[in-house]
What we know:
The complex is a heterodimer.
Chain A: E1 3-5, E2 11-15, E3 19-25, E4 29-35, E5 40-46, H1 64-76, E6 86-91, H2 105-120, E7 124-129, E8 135-140, E9 146-149, E10 156-157
Parallel strand pairs in A: 1-3, 6-7
Antiparallel strand pairs in A: 2-5, 3-8, 4-5, 4-6, 8-9, 9-10
Chain B: H1 6-33, E1 39-50, H2 51-55, E2 64-74, E3 78-85, H3 86-97, H4 106-131, E4 135-137, E5 141-146, H5 147-157, E6 163-173, E7 179-186, H6 188-197
Antiparallel strand pairs in B: 1-6, 2-3, 2-4, 2-5, 3-7, 6-7
Helix pairs in contact in B: 1-4
Amino acid sequence: MKEVFVNIGEIQVLKQRGRLVAVGLGSCVGLILYDALAKVGGMAHVFLPTNKRGGANEHPGKFADTAILAMVEQMTSLGAQKRRLTAKMAGGSQLFSYGAPFMDVGRQNVEALQRELQAAGIPLAGSDVLGSRGRKLIFDVATGQVLVFVIGEDPVEL
Amino acid sequence: MTYDSKGNEFKLDMLKELGNIGAGHATTALSKLLGNKKLTLVVPEAVIVGMQESMRLCGGPESLVGATYIRVSGGLCGHMALLLPYESVQSLLGYLLGAAPQDLSDMELSTLQEVGNIVVTSYLNALADMTHTELYPSVPAVAVDMAAAVWSSILAGAEVADYITIVQTAFQTDAEIIDGTIAFIPDEEDLSKLLDALGMGEL
């Protein structure tokens, strides 16, 4: 089966068959959008809530406030309809213990994506977010099945 | 900033040398912790890489690593991390605590944190001396998880741009299986300050 890895900041979309995989989600969030009828699925590997540095943004998938719109565009060009889309997401954890206030990025990513989904009118059908563990996310576009893996634990279906 | 100029190459050479000296001090400190075991520095590198490429520096994306992270402020802001494969974490803790642990409790984590603290601050002391700047390390944070998740969380905390300057030095011991990587990510805005401090700003 075709397996496409979604690296940090990327958006990947597939139609009919294949798997989308995001490895090593720490504070990053893997966001999935799916049109179950058209069997068009997409995944973004979101790194930060927004592009604070400013300047040109060549990777809309990198930021929570640009990922959704860009992914919806790519999916509709494959035959998906925006009103049929549902979302799932995993990640946004805080791996580091002891201090370090910067470590709140995960929560910020999750909250930003929740806001953006609401603004786009896309319902969130499932999520496994926050906590202190790294995750791997696998999305089967043919069946819509979403699995979340954590080291040393059984996979969880979203 | 362009990433392919001759001047840039020269800067990277300079950073590599800094990394070598900093890591030299850091591994000396680690060697003392380990009863003067011989530690060898391998492949000092200073590179400007994309985020995905930088993932390769931390080993296999799904392999288990222990990491200590320290944010550096003062004259030269940046981010430092000590990354150890899990086997090395176990060897290290086994040596320091008497028995190699199966799971990491608070005791093991805070030992790992302290090792990281000693190693990274030794590196920073050398860097501060060389650049005649004051450098202040944050409280060290510690994590044990998938390499890619740990590394990307550090990069996200650093809010890096698409290209990252990383000074990294790998080290290993001859006798025991303790190897690892010390990575330094200077903030881009401060990189020219660093080179100024070394009298290299006018390249």
